[in-house]
Amino acid sequence: MEIVWYVLITLLTFIVMEVVTWCTHKFVMHGFLWVLHADHHEPKYPHVFEKNDAFFVIFAIPSIALFYFGVTPTLNYLFFIGLGILFYGIAYFLVHDVLIHQRFNWFKNIKNKYLLALRKAHKIHHKNLGKEDGECFGMLLVPNKYFRRN
């Protein structure tokens, strides 16, 4: 029964991370840490890494801490919260950096309606080059209007 709880905790954390990502993107990245996120909104950013990549480290720190405290003194639920954050981070990397921004030459010929809608929603987010008046701050949840346009 304990394994079921750990799986549920991991899945719930993954789901909650979409809300955390939306709030962080809207109020932190497009707020007081715009200085780190602004280069991500520059068209055709010329460098391999962006200041925005610092957010990978920022999100990794709580995950790593939860892994540590999740095995000290014995395995406990904190480890699985860290695991949910890690899985979300992997999904974020694959969806955001690989699929949407195509920072790597993987998944070039996508035909899936959900993934195309997700890409379109993110493109709308990047139409606005400033920190105000943005939309589509989440990563995995796509508003219905982007499915209708496909």
TrEMBL record:
Q: Which InterPro entries match?
A: BETA-OHASE-like
Kindly list the organism's lineage: Bacteria, Pseudomonadati, Bacteroidota, Flavobacteriia, Flavobacteriales
Q: Which GO terms describe its biological process?
A: carotene metabolic process; xanthophyll biosynthetic process
Which species does the entry assign this protein to?
Answer: Arenibacter echinorum
Name used for this protein in its record: Beta-carotene 3-hydroxylase
One Gene Ontology MF term = beta-carotene 3-hydroxylase activity
Q: From the record, give the transmembrane residue ranges.
A: 6-24, 54-71, 77-95
Domain of life from the UniProt record: Bacteria
State the family it belongs to.
Answer: Belongs to the sterol desaturase family.
Coiled-coil-forming residues are none
* Keyword vocabulary terms for this entry: Carotenoid biosynthesis, Membrane, Oxidoreductase, Transmembrane, Transmembrane helix
